[in-house]
Amino acid sequence: MKQGELVVRKSYGGDMLFRVDAVFARTALLRGTDYRLLADSPIDDLESVRNPDELGGTKRARIQASESLKRMRDERASIGLSHLAPLLGADRRPYFEMPGKVLHLDGDANYLQKSLAVYQQLRVPAEGTHCHESQMPQVLMRLLPKVRPDIVVVTGHDGVLKQREDWHKLSSYKNSTNFVQAVNVAREYEKHKDSLVVVAGACQSHFEALLGSGANFASSPGRIMIHALDPVYVAVRAAFTPFRETINVEDVIAHTISGMQGVGGIETMGRYRIGVPNLKALTSNVSLG
Question: Tens digits of per-residue pLDDT, 246-271?
Fold first, then answer.
């Protein structure tokens, strides 16, 4: 067993694909490849995987990810149409868009790249940084005044410690304390929840503590696994909901891959704005003769 190897846990029926993050004497630290779960396992319970695409769980997760991305594209095309009509007038004068800007901190480098690719496809302005969950409060303190985002995502991997399954205690979680501290930093920077939308947490994270520290959306109410793209989906919806409208919390959560047990949130205003005129459109209509 070596670092970077793809494995499944035999005692769990090989239900989830992991990448070995670190190897110790008799145990290995594992990071989910499709779900934001951090776990440890006895080495003798692990089985190497040569063809991950053949695993049923991996197939389902990737189908769900594809469906989620399609839903984001469809919603991207339709969001704001009712908002635009009265502002643009009957002549539909050219306009430009200003979606909310995202600052995405991720404890997993692979997930970060996937997330940034989604933001780019949907034309959401975004900056991302990979750092260990324990470094997020310090990194966020440095980046917030520099990036000046509308939406902050702090995510990575988390999980409930087997020996401390008291859901009410932060000490029972592998990274929830780090996420809570990062949210505290965000709220010290901007206290108004409609001026800075904060999305926080990973698999099995302490949902109540994250909301209590100031997050608008967090995982995981049911202490379940959340898909890698769930925080991205929430951020995209916040970025494209008009600033005069409340983000439809129930609809957003219902359309995440993990659903109500995986993600929750509070009433929050969107961060999308439009402006006129669109200079590119005006320039293209100028006669050169």
Answer: 999 998 998 888 899 999 999 999 99
Residue 214 resides in a domain: yes
Q: Could you give the C-alpha distances from 123 to 58, 67, 94, 219, in angstroms and in order?
A: 28, 18, 18, 25
Nearest-angstrom CA–CA distance, 4 and 162: 24
Buried b (16+ CB within 10 A) or exposed e, 168-181: eeeebbbbbbbbbb
Q: How many domains does the chain have?
A: 2
% residues pLDDT > 90 (the chain)? 57
Sign of CA dihedral 232, 77, 122, 192: negative
d(CA 36, CA 53): 18
| pLDDT given at position 257 | 87
Residue 149 corresponds to which tokens in the numbers above? 């985002």
- Residues 50 and 88 grouped into a single domain: no
CA-to-CA distance for 127 and 116, rounded, in angstroms?
8
Average pLDDT over residues 197-209: 97
For the chain, the C-alpha Rg in angstroms (whole number) is 20
Comparing CA positions, the residue from 143, 133, 224, 209 lying closest to residue 171 is: 209
Would you report the helix, strand and coil content of the chain in percent, each value rounded to 5?
40, 20, 35
Tens digits of residue pLDDT in 78-123:
765 555 555 555 555 677 889 999 999 999 999 999 999 999 999 9
- In the numeric block, the tokens 């008291």 are attached to 166
**Domain of residue 21, residue span:** 10-54
Residues 265-282 pLDDT 10s: 999 999 999 887 777 766
